[in-house]
């Protein structure tokens, strides 16, 4: 029997405390893989070598790479260098050079639960504008994570990311493009789940965050355009104007004690 006037409000999918702990195991493995990749990266090192490093860490830790075979994707990481935004395919022909800006996205499955995280770093010393781009993107991610509080709504996280991006523009004295059409997502026993999380927008909209709600928060910023193109490999996303891009991501849960980052290193 229906009761007039009672409606269940939409909530970002929730996990139990035990499930969050299980996701944190997968997340810690992703953090270890990313740390190993960063350690291995240097001039003359191929992005395929970085992929092999990440896969070894994941498998040695009892996990399975989330990305490998996902809709036919051929690798365990996405390696996006310079003007590549996301989904760059590692290659033995792509070797890193001093000054390159490298974004690595990585996912792992442990006991059926997914972790998903991304970092951006330089090969050697970055020029100041590239360093500012990476830092601004990281700050935007951290602001989004800080908004993962029960009672907030989905676009409160979006708005926090956008607000932090605009604050970074003032601090660094330049504009950043928030990449159109790409954003964060729900995550759990699947890597990509509803809802889609935009990286900008007005607050107070979309499903509510409740205790145990989990989102992958991943701003992507550029030094120029917000527009992108996809290469003929049907995966690699590049900036439409050739400007450099950065990508940072954490998997984050809303808890009674505030945001819990599930892809934190030990």
Structural features, described:
It is an enzyme of class 3 (hydrolase). It catalyses: Release of N-terminal amino acids, preferentially methionine, from peptides and arylamides. Monomer. Keywords: Aminopeptidase, Hydrolase, Metal-binding, Protease. A divalent metal cation 2 binds at residues 116, 185, 218, 249. The protein is α+β, with helices and mostly antiparallel strands. The protein has one domain (17-261): Creatinase/methionine aminopeptidase superfamily (Creatine Amidinohydrolase, Alpha-Beta Complex), CATH 3.90.230.10. Helices cover 29% and strands 25% of the residues. It contains 4 helices and 15 strands. The protein has helices spanning 17-40, 47-60, 128-146, 154-172; strands at 64-65, 77-81, 84-86, 101-110, 113-122, 177-178, 184-186, 193-197, 214-217, 220-222, 228-230, 237-239, 245-247, 250-255, 258-261. A 5-stranded antiparallel beta sheet has the order 8-7-9-14-15. Strand 4 and strand 5 (113-122) form a beta hairpin. Helix 1 runs antiparallel to helix 2 (47-60) and helix 3 packs antiparallel against helix 4. The radius of gyration is 18 Å and the shape is globular.
